[in-house]
Design a protein that fits this description.
With about 575 residues, this protein is α+β, with helices and mostly antiparallel strands. It folds into 2 domains: about 140 residues, Penicillin-binding protein 2a (Domain 2) (Alpha-Beta Complex); about 325 residues, 3-Layer(aba) Sandwich (Beta-lactamase), CATH 3.40.710. Helix content is about 35%, strand content about 20%. It is built from 20 helices and 19 strands. Strands 2, 3, 4, 5, 8, 15 and 16 form a 7-stranded mixed β-sheet that branches. Strands 10-9-19-18-17 form a 5-stranded antiparallel β-sheet, sandwiched between helices. Strand 17 and strand 18 form a beta hairpin. Helix 3 packs across helix 4 and helix 13 crosses helix 18. The protein is elongated. The termini are far apart. About 45% of the residues are buried.
């Protein structure tokens, strides 16, 4: 009996000690939590009684070079319901169906859904949001929001791009500069009871949103409008597929205008318009939208044709393969290996200097020059003038050059490349290359973004772009400017003459593949003033009907553009009297 009692006392002692140790440990743990982790667990407790609603930040504006807003914000609302706070579901359903235009079945389903919060509709006009607020419906929340708004509708649509329902950039500058434009969303915290019902007389906590930065670009609203109007005029006159125009400062690469007509309305970017809506195959709507959004200046490549002779001439002069006064003869064709390659003037130009051949856009002479330069040096200058690489423009989706590998280039390939056939580049690549030829030899980076500024106008970021100096010799640039001015004054580019101004340039008429398709691309590239270029522009007309020569239909587009733009930019006239001759060219 004694042993049993002793054993029982030991069990009681052990049990008592265990309880004491457990209590002691628990006390220490409670003290640690209450003293050292009180803030952490206090926040956890608050979180159980707080409901958060995000408030979108105002997206940064986009402006042109003069501060004109071309992408802004419009105040809209997001309407949502909190199930636990709704007292009259039928009334809520009735009002929201009526005011929002949402099907009753959908509204009722969301109103009756047992959840913390259900969004009924976003991007609701502020006026409608105010009307809904006026009903004082319990359980209905109307939060102000922002929606992207483009005051000029179609202007520069394929450059600016647009945003989605979440106000995030999708294409164009909107997505390229997303991190600067997007801002930082705010937050509203409402205190609720255990059932999720907001407590009365308890103030909401707010974390204010931070507006995005404003993107200042090199675009000019007036020049862009001039370009679009000129492009649309020739698009309609020639029933072309599309017309593209780029206007740029050749000294620093700032793009002042980039038009791709037909454009689309940035405020309704998912609605097919114009020629894009004429397709009977509505099942391919996304393909049609992608086509409508496509920026032909950078997303598409083409055979440049005779405008590329500027590059060939530059390589010829740089390497010493030719001089301005070098003598040639054109019988109307050139035979290279087993290939007979004709001149656009089938009867030939006869004896001519290199300057004459450039004015006449004579294929046989440029074949001779290309063959004299040779494959290695030809590709060397393609690289120096940026033809073998992307331009680095600050837009997404830039296409790459489609060209022969150097080791696969024979005499025929070199001959055809010399006058702009058998390879493809983008219009912007050509504009960049010619800019280097006329600006003293600096290969610049075409761009739109200039700087990012805050809401108070303070500069936060100045965007810098690569420049490569001395891509070609200054002496070569001077010779090329003179020759290209002669092309406009007395050659195939005579329809690009702007009264009172010295203009240089080159025309092109390139036949699309297959060669016997009867489809052409007409183009003209021109710059002014010819002796000190401040502006360069290119016009591309895809598949014009009727007369298709670049000198006939593309050069007048740039002439008309410059007649408006040169005085607008304050470029003074030289009061020149330029006599036109009857030279014909492509």
């Amino acid at each position: 009996m004694l042993n049993v009692k002793t054993f029982s006392r030991k069990k009681i002692v052990i049990f008592t000690v265990a309880i004491a140790l457990f209590s002691f440990a628990l006390s220490i743990r409670l003290a640690y939590i209450m003293i050292f982790q009180s803030e952490y667990y206090g926040k956890k407790a608050d979180d159980l009684h707080e409901r958060e609603r995000y408030v979108k930040a105002a997206r940064g504006e986009i402006t042109d070079r003069n501060g004109v807003v071309i992408a802004a914000n419009k105040t809209v609302c997001t309407v949502s319901v909190i199930h636990s706070q709704i007292k009259d579901a039928d009334r809520v359903t009735e009002v929201l169906t009526k005011e929002l235009g949402v099907p009753e079945e959908k509204v009722r389903k969301l109103v009756n859904k047992v959840s913390v919060r259900e969004k009924i509709k976003s991007n609701v006009p502020k006026e409608t949001g105010d009307i809904i607020r006026g009903y004082n419906l319990e359980g209905v929340k109307v939060d102000e929001d922002y929606k992207r708004y483009y005051p000029y509708n179609e202007m520069a649509s394929k450059v600016l791009g647009f945003t989605g329902a979440d106000n995030q950039g999708i294409v164009g500058l909107e997505v390229e500069y997303e991190k600067y434009l997007k801002g930082k969303d705010g937050l509203i915290l409402a205190v609720t009871d255990a059932r999720g019902i907001e407590l009365e007389n308890v103030a909401e906590k707010r974390v204010e949103s931070v507006q995005g930065l404003t993107l200042k670009t090199g675009l000019d609203v007036n020049i862009q409008m001039y370009a679009q109007q000129a492009a649309m005029k020739v698009l309609e006159a020639k029933s072309a597929n599309y017309v593209s125009i780029i206007v740029m400062n050749p000294q620093n690469g700032e793009i002042m205008a980039m038009a791709n007509v037909p454009e689309y309305n940035l405020n309704t970017p998912f609605e097919l318009e114009g020629v894009y809506s004429e397709s009977e195959n509505v099942e391919n709507k996304q393909d049609l939208l992608n086509k409508m959004w496509r920026n032909q200046c950078i997303n598409d490549t083409y055979e440049p044709g005779s405008t590329f002779k500027i590059v060939t001439a530059t390589a010829g002069l740089e390497t010493g393969a030719v001089s301005i006064d070098s003598n040639f003869s054109c019988p109307g064709f050139r035979i290279v290996e087993d290939r007979r390659i004709r001149c656009h003037k089938t009867t030939g130009h006869g004896a001519e200097t290199f300057l004459d051949a450039t004015k006449n856009s004579c294929n046989p002479v440029f074949i001779d020059v290309g063959l004299r330069v040779g494959v290695d040096d030809f590709y060397k200058y393609l690289g120096k003038l940026g033809i073998l690489s992307k331009t680095g423009v600050d837009l997404p989706g830039e296409a790459s050059t489609i060209i022969h590998k150097k080791e696969n280039v024979g005499l025929v390939e070199l001959a055809t490349m010399s006058f702009g056939q058998s390879f493809q580049i983008t219009p912007l690549q050509l504009l960049r290359a010619v800019s280097a030829v006329i600006n003293g030899g600096t290969l610049i980076t075409p761009h739109f973004g200039v700087e990012a500024v805050d809401k108070d106008g303070n500069t936060v970021k100045v965007f810098e772009y690569e420049k490569i100096d001395n891509a070609i010799e200054n002496d070569t640039c001077e010779k090329m400017k003179y020759m290209l001015e002669q092309v406009v004054a007395n050659g195939g580019g005579k329809n690009g003459i702007v009264e009172g101004y010295r203009v240089g340039g080159k025309t092109a008429t390139s036949q699309k593949l297959p060669r016997n398709s009867g489809r052409y691309i007409s183009s003209f590239i021109g710059f002014a003033p010819a002796d000190n270029p401040q502006i360069i522009a290119i016009c591309i007309i895809d598949e014009p009907e009727g007369v298709y020569y670049g000198g006939t239909i593309a050069a007048p587009v740039i002439r008309e553009l410059y007649e408006n733009v040169l005085p607008y930019l304050g470029i003074e006239k030289d009061n020149l009297n330029i006599e036109k001759d009857n030279t014909e060219s492509d």
